[in-house]
Design a protein that fits this description.
Distance between the termini: 57 Å
Number of helices: 21
Number of strands: 4
Shape: globular
Strand content: under 5%
Structural class: mainly alpha
Length: 497
């Protein structure tokens, strides 16, 4: 039996059984909620959201992932004190991964651009090596399942965005659009940074009070946060607009405002590594001029060093303690910073913190050629994780062994996995910079150059902090940069065929 509905001359037939099913769904849902209470209701709502999300266009999922990661998740976690919201970008990323795989394997519709076999490069080989060694390490070590499941999100869930761009399910122009309007992101973020600086950080006590300045990134006002990732994203946005200006694609006024807002944001948050990253990023923008037109190129480099010096003086004036040598002079601030970050025996049992060099040295002391499996492949995914479910290795120590992304990779995936990640970032950066010189348009040159520089900065941050493994924003900016480079490469290969 069918129900006929007539409207505007159209006759639509709907099976009567479908009408009954649709009518019974809310009835049974209401009964289940009545019996099970709010928990069951929340579970049903979550299932409905997931089921609905599976039917969303992949472009919508892409933008949902971007907005959630860079705009929503951080402030909700920081100001709303909802710590578990950091799962949200990863879950959307997992949905993105499923949809990208489905689109690549089963879609009959040819996407707007699709990579050819000829475009398989050393970068994709390194990505395959990374995935294979992580899986092999976890299997050989028989890593606890719960430990692996909880940590898998950091290693796998967000790469779907990169695959979608690389395979052509999501056009790489979306990334270009994202960066083209990114200066507004800096404008919106600056008041947040100012509020965190003047109203939150100043009320905290202790040597790490300024770590609570994270902008729109993830963090805890009573603890620390992803301040390094905040600076990374600021530098990527500043670099993109500088690269566009150099290509005649950006107005001088817009560039000046972007640089001013970016510099103000960096100066309000003490991330010392920015002093090195800033001239490195801007220097790479003018790398070609440094080689071919040394006077002009070095003039630009000196300008970037001047900006880095301004950051240094601002940090020393704001954040150095007057009771230590760092508060007496800039040279004392530099000396104390170097001592604090290069001490190879620095382990604070009271706070559980380790120095960066100390963390690498500690890993080396606990591995040798007598146990080649763990030296080369590590202890499995999640072995160094901390939290309610601590990793198998982390449980043995009273301090945090995963001080940086590099050390986490060494503990969990060994030398092979750490080497694969370094290869991915280094080869991707080199490919992006090389392709930018041969790009056919000024906008493409600026985009590829920025993507290559973003990967270079991410590579430099591997031994600095845990952001690439632990922070979704840092992961996504690197993944999108790599996907953008490889997608452009596939187009170039197809065009030359």
């Amino acid at each position: 039996m069918q129900q006929g509905i007539t409207r505007s001359g159209l006759h639509i037939s709907i099976p009567f059984s479908s009408v009954i099913v649709v009518a019974l769904i809310p009835l049974f849902a209401g009964l289940l909620i009545g019996v099970g209470g709010p928990v069951v209701g929340a579970g049903l709502a979550a299932m409905l959201v997931v089921a609905s999300a599976l039917f969303l266009p992949i472009n919508w999922v892409f933008w949902l992932l971007v907005i959630t990661t860079f705009v929503l998740a951080g402030p909700i976690q920081y100001f709303g004190y909802i710590q578990k919201v950091f799962w949200l970008p990863y879950l959307i990323g997992l949905l993105m991964l499923f949809k990208a795989l489905a689109a690549h394997l089963f879609s009959r519709r040819k996407p707007e651009h699709r990579t050819e076999k000829a475009s398989a490069t050393s970068v994709t080989v390194a990505v395959a090596l990374y995935l294979i060694t992580l899986a092999t390490s976890s299997l050989f070590n028989a890593a606890p399942i719960l430990q692996v499941l909880l940590s898998l999100k950091e290693y796998l869930f967000l790469i779907g965005a990169g695959f979608a761009v690389y395979w052509g399910s999501v056009h790489y122009y979306n990334i270009d659009k994202l960066l083209r309007y990114s200066h507004w992101y800096l404008v919106v973020q600056l008041p947040v940074i100012a509020y965190q600086h003047f109203f939150i950080a100043v009320k905290r006590v202790g040597p790490s009070s300024w770590d609570s300045i994270v902008g729109l990134m993830s963090g805890d006002p009573e603890g620390g946060g992803a301040s390094a990732t905040m600076v990374l994203i600021i530098l990527v946005i500043m670099t993109y607009h500088l690269a566009r200006w150099r290509q005649g694609e950006c107005r001088t006024g817009s560039l000046v405002i972007t640089l001013a807002v970016g510099m103000a944001s960096i100066m309000l948050a003490e991330v010392k590594f920015a002093i090195i990253l800033l001239p490195a990023a801007f220097g790479l923008v003018y790398l070609k001029e440094i080689v071919k037109r040394p006077i002009f190129g070095f003039s630009a480099l000196i300008g970037s060093l001047f900006l880095a010096a301004a950051v240094l003086f601002a940090y020393q004036a704001q954040f150095a303690s007057t009771q230590t040598k760092s508060g007496k002079s800039v040279s004392g601030y530099i000396e104390e910073t170097i001592e604090r970050n290069t001490g190879d025996e620095q382990i604070n049992l009271a706070t559980g913190e380790m120095g960066r060099i100390a963390a690498v040295k500690f890993w080396w002391r606990n591995h040798s050629v007598d146990d080649p499996l763990r030296l080369l492949l590590g202890h499995g995914i999640g072995a160094s994780r901390i939290g309610m479910v601590a990793g198998e290795v982390a449980q043995r120590y009273r301090f945090e062994i995963g001080r940086t992304s590099l050390v986490m990779l060494l503990w969990e995936g060994g030398i092979v996995t750490a080497g694969a990640v370094i290869m991915i970032l280094a080869l991707g950066a080199l490919r992006g910079l090389r392709m930018s010189y041969a790009a056919g348009s000024s906008s493409e040159r600026a985009m590829l150059q920025t993507a290559g520089i973003a990967l270079t900065l991410t590579l430099a941050m591997l031994p600095y902090g845990p952001d690439l493994i632990s922070v979704s924003q840092a992961q996504l900016i690197a993944i999108l940069s790599l996907g953008r480079i490889l997608a452009s490469n596939s187009t170039a290969v197809r065009g030359s065929a």
